[in-house]
Amino acid sequence: MEIGGGSGREVTLREQFIITLRYAVQHFYIVLALLFVARSIKRRYFSQLYKYPGPFLASISRAWKVISTARGHTEHDFIDLHRKYGPVVRIAPNELSFASPQAARDILTAGRGFHKTDFYGVFPPPENPDIFTETREHVHAQKKRVAATPYSMASMLNQSDRIDSVIQMLRAKLDGFASSETKKPIDLGNWLHYFAFDVLGEVAFSRLFGFLDQGYDVEGCIRTIDDSQWYNGIIGQIPFADRFLRRNPLRQFVPFMATKNALITRMALAEMDKRKPFAADKEQKGDLMGMLIRGHERDPERFREGDVFAVAHGAIFAGSDSTASTMQSFFSEVLRRPPVYAKLQKEISDAAARGDLSDYITWQEAQKLDYFQACLKEALRLRPAVGVNITRVVPPGGADIDGKWYPGGVNVAVNAWVTHRDTALFGEDVDTFRPERWLEDKDKARLMEKYGFWVSLS
User: Fold this and answer.
1) pTM given for the model
2) Nearest 5 degrees, angle CA 203-CA 207-CA 209?
3) Domains, the chain
4) From the first residue on, what is the mean pLDDT of each consecutive set of 10 residues in the chain (458 residues)?
5) Which run of H or E residues covers position 97?
């Protein structure tokens, strides 16, 4: 077949194709630009999410989320975003963010069919997901059933002696600083972080990491977790990139990049090796790993040895950071407000004078300290430990979220820093640390606690 007309030899269709292809190769940047523009127009204006407001960049790519996360203050970006655009905001081509506490409950309540996104697949270890990172719903349910026992309040109360021994170490350190003649200031936030690590080491493995004893970040463990969480947050927005970065098999040949060399990983693996062979007639310790081993023995097919490692490892990896963050927020908010500090100190002193408190205050005794509980809940409300969005996928048939219908396949997200600033629920002064809001009306307090985003993220 020939095409063309006019003077000269007519150009065949094959020759025209070759000419076009050669031009495209020579000017590939123009072709790429045109393709990007066409794709952006399609995403922006021909998407089922077109009607939802949000930043222009967010409607055409995931770059807005990557940039926000990389800046390290994504929680504040989302607060500003919802205050500018409203309760439902488009934050990626196929993702919406919700500000309402009811939306958070609708999305995160188990059994409604909202599955986890591939954001979670970035978190290590990929070959053995723990309860937080497991995306397969039926497998997640199996693991959670086994882990429910060691994570129960009854099990935690049985760990009181282990926790008290680490509290004693922290008290000795702080007493030493207070009685020192030099009176040098200390970074309380760092010592709370050291305390969190050593407590979880005792609870999980019956071993201290040595942070309190040595008074510094042992083997850069805290820094390693901070760097890993920073990576998880950013690359979790573009999960495909993980295959070329942390999941790159070449990394394991570089000693400082191999995850198996990290302190927490080495300790978890060493503890597992020490307790083998696992056997029903072999007495295991009463710590987290021991309870997980017993769970494995009861159902080795559904809860494998790798799951024992993953859940115990995850408890330290994620638990140390969130526990330290919560304590740091509590002390920061209370100590910066003399009236709050004085009121809290008086409540504790009065309870001690009445003989209501042990030397190491028990969980049951702490529950009766109303103002202390109010301060703790207010710290969790104002500065929750998790600052990134928690995402799910709308079930294939679509679903109702806070009274409105959303199509299947859409990614939906909620952020605790946003939902905890809902003025209809928490009051107009949502940006203020005010523990009294939890004591003014019991019914309102129960409602606020019901919608608190600190209950479960797994």
Assistant:
1) 0.86
2) 105
3) 1-43 (no CATH), 123-336 (1.10.630.10)
4) 49 72 69 66 78 92 93 95 97 96 93 90 78 81 82 84 94 91 88 94 90 92 87 91 82 60 79 80 77 88 88 84 93 97 98 95 95 97 93 95 96 97 96 97 95 64
5) strand 95-98
